[in-house]
From TrEMBL:
<dbReference type="GO" id="GO:0016020">
    <property type="term" value="C:membrane"/>
</dbReference>
<feature type="transmembrane region" description="Helical">
    <location>
        <begin position="181"/>
        <end position="203"/>
    </location>
</feature>
<feature type="transmembrane region" description="Helical">
    <location>
        <begin position="116"/>
        <end position="142"/>
    </location>
</feature>
<dbReference type="Pfam" id="PF01694">
    <property type="entry name" value="Rhomboid"/>
</dbReference>
<keyword id="KW-1133">Transmembrane helix</keyword>
<dbReference type="InterPro" id="IPR050925">
    <property type="entry name" value="Rhomboid_protease_S54"/>
</dbReference>
<keyword id="KW-0378">Hydrolase</keyword>
<keyword id="KW-0812">Transmembrane</keyword>
<feature type="transmembrane region" description="Helical">
    <location>
        <begin position="261"/>
        <end position="283"/>
    </location>
</feature>
<comment type="similarity">
    <text>Belongs to the peptidase S54 family.</text>
</comment>
<feature type="transmembrane region" description="Helical">
    <location>
        <begin position="154"/>
        <end position="175"/>
    </location>
</feature>
<protein>
    <submittedName>
        <fullName>Rhomboid family protein</fullName>
    </submittedName>
</protein>
<feature type="transmembrane region" description="Helical">
    <location>
        <begin position="210"/>
        <end position="230"/>
    </location>
</feature>
<dbReference type="InterPro" id="IPR035952">
    <property type="entry name" value="Rhomboid-like_sf"/>
</dbReference>
<dbReference type="InterPro" id="IPR022764">
    <property type="entry name" value="Peptidase_S54_rhomboid_dom"/>
</dbReference>
<feature type="transmembrane region" description="Helical">
    <location>
        <begin position="236"/>
        <end position="254"/>
    </location>
</feature>
<feature type="domain" description="Peptidase S54 rhomboid">
    <location>
        <begin position="113"/>
        <end position="249"/>
    </location>
</feature>
Amino acid sequence: MAENPATSDAPVAPPVCPRHPDRVSYVRCQRCGRPTCPDCQRQAAVGVQCVDCVAEAARGTRDARTPLGGRRREGRPVVTLTIIALCVASFVLQLVDPMWTIRWYFDPERGLEEPWRFLTASFLHSPGSYVHIGVNMLALWMTGPFLEQALGRARFLTLYALSAFGGSVAVVVLAEPLDAWDVGVVGASGAIFGLFGAVLVVMRRLGGDVRGILVVLALNVVIGFVFAGIAWQAHLGGLLTGVALGAAYAYAPADRRREVAWVAPAVVGAVLLAATLVAYAAAGML
C-alpha cells in the first residue's frame, strides 16, 4: 500500500509547556504526563510534577489540626513574638520619649474619653523598672507558644486582646472611683493573667498536670496583694476573662469550633462592655 507523503514526511512539533507555549520541554510531569518547563517543575518524591498537579494535591490535603482544632504549624510562634516585639519597642519609646507613656497609659477617667487606652496600656511597662517588662515577657514566652499552637493564631490573639481589655475593665469596676480612678495603669499583666487562666483550662482539658501553673498563679496573686503599686484588679480581670474564653475554646464541640470562635469573644466582650458602662453610670460619669 502506498503511503501518503503529506502525512509520513510531516515534521513532529516538539512538546511545549502548557503554561508557557513558547518553551520547549522534554521533561514531563510524573502525575499528569504533560510537558513542564523548568519554571513550572516541582521536585517530587520520584521525578518532578507540574505546578498544577502540586496545587491540586495541596487542595486535597487536609490541614493538620491540634486536639483543640488549631492549625498545626511548624516554625516560630509568630503572634507571640510579634506581641513581645511590640512591647519591647514600646518600652524603648517610653525611655526615649516620656510623652509616649502619657499618651497611651490607662486610667478609668481617661478611658471613658479615650477608650483605646483600655488596650494600649497593655503594651506599656514601668519605665523605671526593667524587671516589670522582663517578668511579663518571660511569662508571655512561657505560655504564648503553647496556646498559640493549641488554639491557633486567631483564637490566641483574640484571647490575649480580650484578657488585656478585661484587666482594664476590672480596674474600672473594682477600683475606688474617688481614690484610684486617676491613677495610671500600665503593663501586660492583665493579658498575661488571661493566658495563665487559659493555660489552666486547656491543660486540664487535655489531661495535663496543672499543679505547676496553679503554683505560678498563687505566687502572682500573693505578690499582687502584698506589694504596693500593683493593680491586682487588672490581674483578676484578666484571669477571669482568660478562664472564660479558654473554657469556651477548649470545651467547644469539634463541629462547632468555628462558630464558638466568633460567638464566645463576642459574648465575653459584650459582658465586659456592659460591666464598664454600669460602673461608669454608678460613678455618675454617664
